[in-house]
Automatic annotation (TrEMBL):
Residues 3-102 form the TBP-interacting protein N-terminal domain. Residues 103-216 form the TBP-interacting protein C-terminal domain. It comes from Thermococcus argininiproducens. This is TBP-interacting protein. Pfam families: TBPIP_C (PF21664), TBPIP_N (PF15517). InterPro entries: TBPIP_C, TIP_C, TIP_N, TIP_N_sf.
Length: 226
């Protein structure tokens, strides 16, 4: 199929999102499939005529990833059966929001074809995304995501920057590790606290002293900067 033969609605929707280089796009006759570049997480975008059609589509899922049904009207935005049903004009911003919620969560080094390669782990934080959309929270302004490592020696969470120093105190050299898996927490500047992906606050006593100082710096700084 040639690009010129595509349905006009598909072309119009595609033209609105093709500059988002966090994704690459496959364009089909009736849908656009995006892959988040770093994580390969798929996003299926279907152009529909009505809410009824969108809701019907929301009942079927083609596998992991995010489904979006795009409507031609001006003021629709809701989530049904995990599918985003939204007006064309909200699509680009929503894809940018989704990108903000796919977070690097660790790595492992594996042997493949006689070489050592790093595999990266990413996490899609769908629960926080919905909460942030509902309360109009902006990444970098109202919250940031941060990686924390649960120390196998003392059981406390350590922020990623403080990890080498923290592990050194236990006599562990992080350079010897071939994998690390982090918990991604939200530093919420509005609430002044740290939250896990389920929206539960993580109390300060769960963090190592270095991480507590880091959180105080981050949250205190943001508050006084406002
Ligand atoms: Zn420790």
């Amino acid at each position: 199929m040639k690009y010129s033969e595509l349905n006009g609605n598909v072309k119009r929707v595609y033209a609105k999102i093709r500059m988002l280089d966090d994704y690459h796009w496959d364009i089909h006759k009736d849908k656009i499939i995006g892959y988040h570049r770093k994580s390969e997480f798929p996003i299926r975008i279907r152009v529909v005529e009505s809410k009824e059609e969108a809701e019907k589509l929301s009942e079927q899922k083609d596998g992991p990833g995010i489904d979006i049904a795009v409507l031609p009207d001006a003021n629709t935005f809701y989530i049904k059966n995990g599918t985003f049903i939204l007006s064309e004009r909200f699509l680009k911003a929503t894809l940018m929001d989704i990108n903000d919620h796919i977070i690097w969560g660790g790595f492992r080094v594996i042997e493949r074809d006689g070489k050592l390669v790093q595999e990266d782990l990413y996490e899609y934080l769908g629960g926080p995304l919905v909460r942030h959309l509902k309360s109009n929270m902006m990444n970098g302004q109202d919250y940031v995501f941060w990686q924390f490592y649960k120390c196998e020696k003392c059981g406390k969470f350590v922020d990623i920057e403080s990890l080498p120093e923290h592990m050194a105190k236990h006599g562990i050299n992080v350079a010897e590790k071939d994998n690390e898996k982090y918990e991604v927490f939200e530093l919420n500047f509005i609430e002044g606290g740290v939250f896990n992906k389920f929206g539960e606050e993580v109390p300060q006593n769960k963090f190592a002293p270095e991480a507590q100082a880091f959180i105080r710096d981050m949250i205190g700084e943001q508050k006084s900067g406002k």
